[in-house]
Amino acid sequence: MINFKKEEGVDFMANYILEEKESFTVLGFGTELMSHYTDYAGISKEKAAFWEGIKQDGRLDTLKAIATNDYIFAVNEAVNNKLMHYAGVMTASLLPEADRVIQFPKGEYLVVQGEAKTSDEMSHMLTGIAFGQVLPEAKDFAYVGGPNATVEMGLRNGLVFGEVWIPVVRK
């Protein structure tokens, strides 16, 4: 367990580990993020609108119906020089209307665990810890690209819990 400091100066605890994962695929619906990759507020707004849309139009329920587990993936991936964001699930099924089958490679992953009041809060918190604190301070491993995901795993004590999975290589 590592102690991090939030920007406001409030202490909080976050678990992170390096974990070997087998390759896996996520089937998803996606959107191209048009904000510059450094425009955190713009990207957050686009992602929130995307998630609201797929919840309202039933695409998220369609994915959940064919999922092999209860995990909901929020995937970020650069595809053909475009920043893409997907809502997805692990499944052995295919949907003709789905936008992408996302391949995650076998290898080591940075895994940060946490919980928050909402899926959105959990995703922001875990992504911020991973990309804003753990990866910049890591001396033995680095993220070199590829899809990464926030994984909503369920509810516990009224809070959404999950992890962020980021493929890494040893330095």
Tell me the count of domains: 2
Mean pLDDT rating: 89
Instruction: Measure the end-to-end span.
Output: 22 Å
Our estimate of the beta-strand percent is over 45%
Largest sheet: 9 strands, antiparallel
Overall SS class = alpha+beta
Element-level helix/strand string: EEEHHEEEEHEEEE
Query: Which spans of ≥5 residues are poorly predicted at pLDDT below 50?
Result: 1-13
Count of extended strands: 11
Molecular structure report:
The chain has 171 residues and is an alpha+beta fold. The protein folds into two domains: 1-23 and 108-171; 25-104, no CATH class. Helix content is 26%, strand content 45%. The protein has three helices and eleven strands. It has helices at 40-56, 59-66, 119-137, and strands at residues 2-5, 11-21, 24-32, 72-79, 82-89, 100-104, 107-116, 141-142, 148-156, 159-167, 169-170. A nine-stranded antiparallel beta sheet has the order 1-2-7-10-9-4-5-3-6, covered by helices on one side. It has a two-stranded antiparallel sheet with strand order 8-11. A hairpin with a 2-residue loop joins strand 4 (72-79) and strand 5. The longest helix has 19 residues, at 119-137. It is globular and about 45 Å long. The two termini are 22 Å apart. Mean pLDDT is 89; it is low at 1-13.
Summarize the structure.
This protein is an alpha+beta fold and 171 residues long.
List the helices and strands and how they pair.
Blueprint: E1 2-5, E2 11-21, E3 24-32, H1 40-56, H2 59-66, E4 72-79, E5 82-89, E6 100-104, E7 107-116, H3 119-137, E8 141-142, E9 148-156, E10 159-167, E11 169-170
Antiparallel strand pairs: 1-2, 2-7, 3-5, 3-6, 4-5, 4-9, 7-10, 8-11, 9-10
